[in-house]
Amino acid sequence: MNKRTASWIFIILMSASVTASLAQTALNTALPAIMNDLKVDSATGQWLTSGYTLVMGIMVPATAYFMKRFSTRQLFIGAFSLFTIGSLVAWLGLNFELLLVGRILEAMGTGIFLPLTQIAIMTIFPVGRQGVMMGIYGLAATAAPVIAPTLSGILIDAFGWRSIFAVITVLSVIVLVVGIFCLRNFGESQLTHFDTVSFLLSAIGFSGLLVGLGNFGATDRLWVWLPIILGIGSLLAFTYRQIKEAQPFLDLGVFRSRRFTWAVIISMLLYAAMMAGSTIYPIYVQNILHQSAVVSGLVMLPGSLLMAILNPITGKFYDRYGIKWLLIMGSSAVLVSALGSACFNDSTSLWVISILFAIRLIGVACIMMPVVTWAMQGSSDEEKASQTAVLTSLRTISGAFGVAIFTAILTFVTTQSGSHQIASVQGIDVAFMGMAILALIQLLISIVAIKRGN
Q1: Which residue ranges does the record assign to the Major facilitator superfamily (MFS) profile domain (predicted)?
Q2: In whole angstroms, what is the distance from residue 166 CA to residue 90 CA?
Q3: Which of 34, 94, 342, 440 has its Cα between 20 and 30 A from that of 254?
Q4: Per-residue model confidence as pLDDT tens digits over 77-108
């Protein structure tokens, strides 16, 4: 494949990923306004984030089948059309239920074209450029988070939260049209069987766990344990089926690689804390400190900018020195940020919040993209497809669990403290302390289990 064709594939898929990143990041800032406008509490409102993330994670394993069955053009156009329709439904939806439906449609499309982008980078570029190109992709994917919090804050204060979905819809239409006319195929399509039973078992399993954990603070414990038991049973059946099938829906054989296994565990820990923190920071600034959406976005701006700058740098650092020190530095930064955030009160300086948020995103930049490159480097194209499906699916679903669990903890502690508000300082602090525990486990793994030679 010549450089021009590879560049066009990269630009189009990267633009789609940036649009999806904008949709996800902007919603974090908008969530407090949506909860206030639609009169829902944080335990209900978080489904716009955790539900989106869960559906995206469930769709990812199906991507391995879709990539074999359909051409690159067909797959991208179909998936991104679904994302665009979802954005339109969220924009025009009159209630929380329709808004959630729109988010689910967005997630179904995103769950397909995000892993497609990562596989493209690892396939159309030579090994010597993969780290740099993954870094550039990370830079572009985090360019949206740089401007999204501030931009969404301005839009919310000026036009309301629906204007965010209006902007995303327009951007999606532009990217879709360019993709229809300019995207070229890579790889070959072939007839293959879609394992509907495995897909349903994974959907029921992960959804059951998420619903049960998300109902942590419910007074009726039946709605906690029944979904969890159903989820565990479905996932056990799913795992057994993958082991027995000659062509499994999700190839769990990739876990024979020690490197890949540790990469998945680290990514899951990182995503759980990262997604939960991204949801809870705006709630704290807007509902506890009573600041505007614009101020909430400005608090996050320095950290988002640092992350965007560091992404290509960490890619080059990985190409030269490997993964171990990046993991140690990144895990330490996330741990320090979480511990500092666990000390928030009702008068914490906005500068302190901004600095802690920036430290957190510096840590994320050290780990998020390099660990993906490290996990798959040296694998065959077929192995990369399976590895991408497993890694992207599990870390994404872990992010959904992180949002659901820590938001449930926030709501539970807030209720127990006697507060009738969406969130309390005590709930915020306990949630961040839980994230600190995840970061500590991640740091210990980085020190003990990861060899310097890797």
Answers
A1: 9-454
A2: 9
A3: 440
A4: 888 999 999 999 999 888 888 999 999 999 88
CA nearest to 47, candidates 102, 6, 7: 102
Token representation of residue 67? 């990539």
Q: What is the rounded distance in angstroms from the CA atom of residue 296 to the CA atom of residue 275?
A: 17
Give the C-alpha separation, 282 to 59, whole Å: 28
Direct distance between the N- and C-terminal alpha carbons of the chain, in angstroms, rounded to an integer: 30
Scanning the structure block, which residue is given the tokens 């993958």? Answer: 242
Class of domain 3-195+247-448: mainly alpha
- Three-state SS string over 330-374 comes to HHHHHHHHHHHHCCCCCCCCHHHHHHHHHHHHHHHHHHHHHHHHH
Can you read off the two tokens belonging to residue 421? 């508000």
Token representation of residue 326: 């990046």
Rounded distance between C-alpha atoms, residue 454 and residue 438, angstroms = 23
Going through 74-214 in order, the beta strands assigned E by DSSP cover none
Query: Which residues touch 62 (CB under 8 Å, ≥6 apart)?
Result: 111, 112, 194, 199, 249
Nearest to 49 by CA among 118, 100, 112, 121: 100
Give CA–CA dist 63/2, Å, rounded.
Answer: 26
Structure tokens that stand for 158 in this block:
């000026």
- Residues 359 and 200: their CA atoms lie apart, in Å, by 39
Q: Hey, is 302 helix, strand or coil?
A: helix
pLDDT of residue 99: 92
Q: How far is CA 184 from CA 64, 68, 206, in A?
A: 19, 16, 35
Q: How far is residue 121's CA from residue 130's CA, in Å, rounded to a whole number? A: 7
- With contact defined as beta carbons under 8 Å apart, do 291 and 285 qualify? yes
190: left (phi over 0), alpha (psi -120 to 50) or beta: beta
* CA-based max dimension of the chain: 64
Identity at 261, one-letter amino acid code: T
Ordered by start, the domain boundaries in the chain are: 3-195+247-448, 196-246
Residue identified by tokens 């540790």 is 262
